[in-house]
Amino acid sequence: MKRFLLLYASQRGQAQAIAEDISEKAVAYGFSADLHCISESHKYDLKTERAPLVVVVSTTGNGDPPDTARKFVKAIQDKTLPSDFLAHLWYGLLGLGDSEYTYFCNGGKIIDKRLQELGAQRFYDTGHADDCVGLELVVEPWINGLWAALAKHFLLSRGREEMNGTLTMASNASRRTDPVTPELLHIESQVGLLRLDDSRRKDAEVIEQNAVNRGQSNTLIADFEPSLIRSVPPLSQASLNIPALPPEYLQVHLEESFGQEESQAPVTSVDPVFHVPISKAVQLTMNDAIKTTLLIELDISKTDFSYQPGDAFNVICPNSDSEVQHLLQRLQLTDRREHCVILNIKADTKKKGATLPQHIPEKCSLHFLLTWCLEIRALPKKAFLRALVDHTGDGAEKRRLQELCSRQGAADYNRFVRDSRACLLDLLLAFPSCQPPLGLLLEHLPKLQPRPYSCASSSLFHPGKLHFIFNIVEFWSDTTAVALRKGVCTGWLAALVESVLQPNTHASRADGEKALAPEISISPRATNFFHLPNDPSVPIIMVGPGTGIAPFIGFLQHREKLREHHPDGHFGAMWLFFGCRHKDRDYLFREELRHFLKCGILTHLKVSFSRDAPVGEEEAPAKYVQDSIQRHSEQVARVLLQEDGHVYVCGDAKNMAKDVNDVLVEIISKEVGVEKLEAMKTLATLKEEKRYLQDIW
């Protein structure tokens, strides 16, 4: 078999899952994938690597490569490396991103660009998969085309005589010298696939069934609207191409436990975990506000936890107890909820390099496992749906699951699973005859991730305390029955502080009292970059609507204390563009901001109200923060371009941050008198100089 190096850089497991899928499929095409996380630099060496390289890279909210790629990116960005450092290397890269964010697929683009600068050459065109419309729309054809691209590469580099019959699918492609496109190679790889023997043909399993077998007439089917559990023609009558069955690899035993104590924080992390009490909780919004915003104060005085204004930290949270109970009931495991979970790798598994999940602690109870270790709300991927098919008894239900994971059912998957935010429990309630073994769930449910929050205080202003704010996330789920769901972490925190919650009493300036609520577990974030300039005389512009104001409250508190300590110091101007819906319902930190403005800490405060109508003859107020920035374009341009100021943006990445970025481009273009492209380059330079910083989600 022909070996290629396969690296993945994953933040939440997407890139890793795709890379593992590539690794497993490679065997059927005569290739062997040497699979590693990109952070495992001791297991590979690009400087001496002669095999082709395949890289799958995700992107974080700020357009950066994931944390696991930090060391790799730092290493290849070494300016002392010669331009031919990787001239021997041929590679193909698949980037994952979301086009609703400003820097789409930027994690992959950063690595792709630098590999090119170091002389590496593409043997296969780069793919950019968009999570906004569904990663699989690009991922699946990109993977399908990869095999012929690899075949062509080996054919050109080592000679036709080394190629076996499996690689004849590249014979036409061998006449080309440019990187091959996924679209063309998808056709070639499918032709080549037809030449494989029966044992390999299973990898592209084709199921031909007809919905008429359900005993429903075409007329009756047409009367139905499609839903999670039901399709309509043409899908209901189509032949289906479904994914290969993922090999099962976990053997699970449930043993009676004998009262062992369990830690509340099973997360395996290099970061230290701190158990801290909640000393105060305040509701910042009025009861009639569209969203409820809470402030929580943590007492960190007895820990070594430290932070700077602008830092973020992780809250380790559990799944909803009621959802865990419902899942146990549905799996018929309620009576064994306290049993100890023993995991082993199946001796006869066909999964290459199968290992036990690191996020599952040894000998924990089943209840603990479902509560603290697994993301039971995770969006079920198509591979998971495919695996559930083989554990579903009813023919109609089996067919519908096949449709949802098929190529032909992509639109239904997006509508009824992805866009409806369906989770495992929804699927199990929708398909009663589906009885998956526990091991299958452990194979497909990802690790329950800690949730990041921005620090909303300064340790100089609140010694021994840490503040953070959040909206209680609420959304309607109507996959099986209409129900109001709350965010995993925000719903848990809100319930935790419900009995001690105070109304808005200018929380950020009040002193905390002794702990009123249970402890929660927190950990520092691996990367924190959203900091005030080292030179306090540098002017700054802060943009943070809604809870995006959090780090800026810390900035302002910090600046107030610095001015107290250095009364003769020179401090730069501080602009704040804040926005909310209604002046009288959700104007967060109103009194605190007035105080900072009165004291001269905050130089300019510009607030926009998106839902309030103008009163009388007054000029219509700015609706959104980007509108307010536009109205002060001359001053904004002066701060950024003439006074070497910094701009900070915090909040919603999909809409606000993108709109603010566009307005900044317009302002630079207008005030400097340059084309839009040149203005974009100027903004990109500010970002490279760490003068344009974003903390977005």
UniProtKB/TrEMBL annotation:
<dbReference type="GO" id="GO:0003958">
    <property type="term" value="F:NADPH-hemoprotein reductase activity"/>
</dbReference>
<dbReference type="GO" id="GO:0070402">
    <property type="term" value="F:NADPH binding"/>
</dbReference>
<dbReference type="GO" id="GO:0043418">
    <property type="term" value="P:homocysteine catabolic process"/>
</dbReference>
<dbReference type="InterPro" id="IPR001709">
    <property type="entry name" value="Flavoprot_Pyr_Nucl_cyt_Rdtase"/>
</dbReference>
<comment type="subunit">
    <text>Forms a multiprotein complex with MMACHC, MMADHC and MTR.</text>
</comment>
<dbReference type="GO" id="GO:0005654">
    <property type="term" value="C:nucleoplasm"/>
</dbReference>
<dbReference type="InterPro" id="IPR039261">
    <property type="entry name" value="FNR_nucleotide-bd"/>
</dbReference>
<feature type="domain" description="Flavodoxin-like">
    <location>
        <begin position="4"/>
        <end position="147"/>
    </location>
</feature>
<dbReference type="GO" id="GO:0005829">
    <property type="term" value="C:cytosol"/>
</dbReference>
<dbReference type="GO" id="GO:0010181">
    <property type="term" value="F:FMN binding"/>
</dbReference>
<dbReference type="GO" id="GO:0045111">
    <property type="term" value="C:intermediate filament cytoskeleton"/>
</dbReference>
<protein>
    <recommendedName>
        <fullName>Methionine synthase reductase</fullName>
        <ecNumber>1.16.1.8</ecNumber>
    </recommendedName>
</protein>
<dbReference type="Pfam" id="PF00258">
    <property type="entry name" value="Flavodoxin_1"/>
</dbReference>
<dbReference type="GO" id="GO:0071949">
    <property type="term" value="F:FAD binding"/>
</dbReference>
<dbReference type="InterPro" id="IPR029039">
    <property type="entry name" value="Flavoprotein-like_sf"/>
</dbReference>
<dbReference type="InterPro" id="IPR017927">
    <property type="entry name" value="FAD-bd_FR_type"/>
</dbReference>
<dbReference type="GO" id="GO:0009086">
    <property type="term" value="P:methionine biosynthetic process"/>
</dbReference>
<dbReference type="GO" id="GO:0046655">
    <property type="term" value="P:folic acid metabolic process"/>
</dbReference>
<dbReference type="InterPro" id="IPR023173">
    <property type="entry name" value="NADPH_Cyt_P450_Rdtase_alpha"/>
</dbReference>
<keyword id="KW-0560">Oxidoreductase</keyword>
<keyword id="KW-0597">Phosphoprotein</keyword>
<keyword id="KW-0486">Methionine biosynthesis</keyword>
<keyword id="KW-0963">Cytoplasm</keyword>
<dbReference type="GO" id="GO:0009235">
    <property type="term" value="P:cobalamin metabolic process"/>
</dbReference>
<dbReference type="Pfam" id="PF00175">
    <property type="entry name" value="NAD_binding_1"/>
</dbReference>
<dbReference type="GO" id="GO:0030586">
    <property type="term" value="F:[methionine synthase] reductase (NADPH) activity"/>
</dbReference>
<dbReference type="InterPro" id="IPR001433">
    <property type="entry name" value="OxRdtase_FAD/NAD-bd"/>
</dbReference>
<keyword id="KW-0028">Amino-acid biosynthesis</keyword>
<keyword id="KW-0274">FAD</keyword>
<dbReference type="InterPro" id="IPR008254">
    <property type="entry name" value="Flavodoxin/NO_synth"/>
</dbReference>
<keyword id="KW-0285">Flavoprotein</keyword>
<dbReference type="InterPro" id="IPR017938">
    <property type="entry name" value="Riboflavin_synthase-like_b-brl"/>
</dbReference>
<keyword id="KW-0521">NADP</keyword>
<feature type="domain" description="FAD-binding FR-type">
    <location>
        <begin position="271"/>
        <end position="533"/>
    </location>
</feature>
<dbReference type="InterPro" id="IPR001094">
    <property type="entry name" value="Flavdoxin-like"/>
</dbReference>
<dbReference type="InterPro" id="IPR003097">
    <property type="entry name" value="CysJ-like_FAD-binding"/>
</dbReference>
<dbReference type="Pfam" id="PF00667">
    <property type="entry name" value="FAD_binding_1"/>
</dbReference>
<keyword id="KW-0949">S-adenosyl-L-methionine</keyword>
<keyword id="KW-0288">FMN</keyword>
